[in-house]
Amino acid sequence: MSELLQTSLIWRVCAAIAAWYRKTPLKKAERAFVRLWMQSGFYRFFARLLTSAPITERSNYRRLLGRCNDLLGRHGSFPELLRTSLLGRVYAKVLACLQNSFLVGRMFAGGMTSILLCIIAAYFPIDWLLRDILKLSALSSIWDEALMLLCLLWIVYRRTAARPSLRTASNPVDLWLGLYMLVGLVLLVFTESRLSVNITGYRASMQYILLFFLVTRLLQNDRDFTVMYRLSVFIALAFALHGIAQFVLGVEIPASWTDAAEGSVRTRAFSVFSNPNIFAGYMVLFAPMAIGAAYSSRDPATKVVFWICGLCMCLACLFTMSRGAWLALACAAVLFAMIVDRRLLLLMLVGVLVTVAAFTLSHLVLKAWQIKEENELTI
Asked: What average pLDDT does the structure give for the chain?
């Protein structure tokens, strides 16, 4: 990828602009600003904050989790009894069939951990299937809580069966999750409203925070993370292709989805979501993930697959006609370039300038053509 960029015309133009910039007074001003920033108290504060050891390393929270691990390790005979039971033998047979499958064998190579992570990755399509397709209202209202309970039981089982005991998975993110839940609990108690409504809102807000907490405990290695990551991207690709097909086929949409300024818009992509803006947010979430996987992969075929995924998601986001999502996607692209490769910022700048110039030129040509036709009609 870097060789293709360095030999392109755009890259040479960007290199020339960078060489010119280094000779201007702006470069000297930038260096002076950076020097003042590095000598400031704010810089020293943030440098100390970001480079110091995580606060959870020496916390009572970590010690408490360590004691829980030791307590679970003392009941090591229970996992063996469970494995030799009828339920354990049935689970082993089903898992062996899944792992020997040609289609899903690699996906379930990690056992129950991989199964749970795959279900979490497919959370939205499963929920959509139960609620909107099968209309199983009783099951759809409790399946996600049952999934979280199963994840918790599996984490406990795995830590009980591990020899030697697994190290605690505490990390600094736990502190902020706990603080967020504590603030939500305070608001629940002191907000003047019906208590049942407050509890329902608190449950809906914190349920996914707890699910994230459980996922950080389920992940054991890079393979587990890769399976969940790629499955999430491929599921998003399926919805993106569905949304693109809707736009191409001109699927009817409610009149309330367009305003007076969008009178020429005949349709908006929404896939199976209830609103194009929600679908756009879903695409904004996964498009950077797909492009990041393409950028970091070393296998050319894998790169091509993830680039196609990312471009399809960007195209689906474009077809939602959601201006807020377009802005969010642009911000995500800039942040991605700043984190991964800042040279991409120059390419983006050139791309924006070329796009603006092309639109301006086409508008001028169209305007000139209209004036010419009006003059001919007048004559």
From this structure: 82
Spell out the residues 6+ positions from residue 77 whose beta carbon is closer than 8 angstroms to its own: none
Answer yes or no: are the C-beta atoms of 264 and 221 closer than 8 Å.
no
Stated pTM of the model? 0.76
| 190-195-201-207 Cα dihedral, nearest 10 degrees | 90
Tokens in use for 155? 């984490």
Please give the share of the chain, as a percent, with pLDDT higher than 70: 87
- Lowest-confidence segment of 24-28, 129-133, 310-314 by average pLDDT: 24-28
d(CA 150, CA 152): 5
Q: How many CB atoms lie within 10 A of CB 114?
A: 24
Closest to 290 (Cα-Cα) out of 332, 347, 242, 244 = 332
